[in-house]
């Protein structure tokens, strides 16, 4: 009995993601949640740590659109990290028109995820310094609470980078030799 070699178009089997990567992907979605919930509180009319004068810009119609939109968009971007540890990160879901059912080229996932991780690290890298900046428009308690709610965002980029690296390692082409 001879073993047949799989056709060249068939992808090599990929190891399942390590448990730490799956947990890290879930954690990525959770670190975005506190700041998003805080913005939702502002939209619902709660000053959420702002003085009366400081809250005025958030009581506008524009703010009531962009703050929930930012919260939802941030959470959706964070949830994309799950694709690096789930089957839909390897095969495009069938319900997506024209490309559903196709294999995801690993670099088509790795490059945007790595660039996103780098951007998030740059954007949120100074969050631990929150309390060194003046926030006259906030109450002392509000300054403390908002600072605490935003601190998890510091981890968003590094967590995404770790899950991206795990995905890359599982999908890289191994050359014989």
TrEMBL record:
The keyword Transmembrane helix applies. It comes from the Bacteria. Keywords: Membrane, Transmembrane, Transmembrane helix. The chain crosses the membrane at residues 27-45, 65-85, 106-127, 147-168. This is Uncharacterized protein. It comes from Streptomyces microflavus. The lineage of its organism: Bacteria, Bacillati, Actinomycetota, Actinomycetes, Kitasatosporales.
């Amino acid at each position: 009995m001879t073993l047949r070699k799989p056709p060249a178009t068939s992808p090599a089997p990929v190891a399942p993601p390590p448990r730490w990567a799956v947990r890290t992907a879930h954690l990525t979605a959770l670190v975005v949640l506190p700041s998003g919930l805080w913005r939702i509180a502002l939209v619902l009319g709660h000053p959420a740590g702002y003085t009366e004068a400081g809250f005025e810009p958030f009581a506008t119609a524009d703010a009531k659109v962009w703050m929930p939109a930012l919260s939802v968009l941030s959470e959706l971007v964070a949830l994309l990290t799950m694709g690096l540890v789930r089957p839909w990160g390897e095969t495009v879901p069938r319900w997506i028109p024209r490309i559903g059912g196709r294999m995801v080229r690993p670099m088509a996932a790795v490059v945007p995820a790595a660039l996103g991780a780098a951007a998030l690290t740059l954007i949120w890298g100074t969050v631990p310094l929150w309390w060194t900046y003046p926030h006259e428009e906030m109450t002392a308690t509000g300054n403390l609470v908002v600072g605490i709610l935003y601190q998890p965002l510091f981890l968003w980029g590094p967590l995404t980078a770790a899950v991206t690296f795990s995905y890359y390692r599982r999908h890289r082409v191994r050359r014989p030799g």
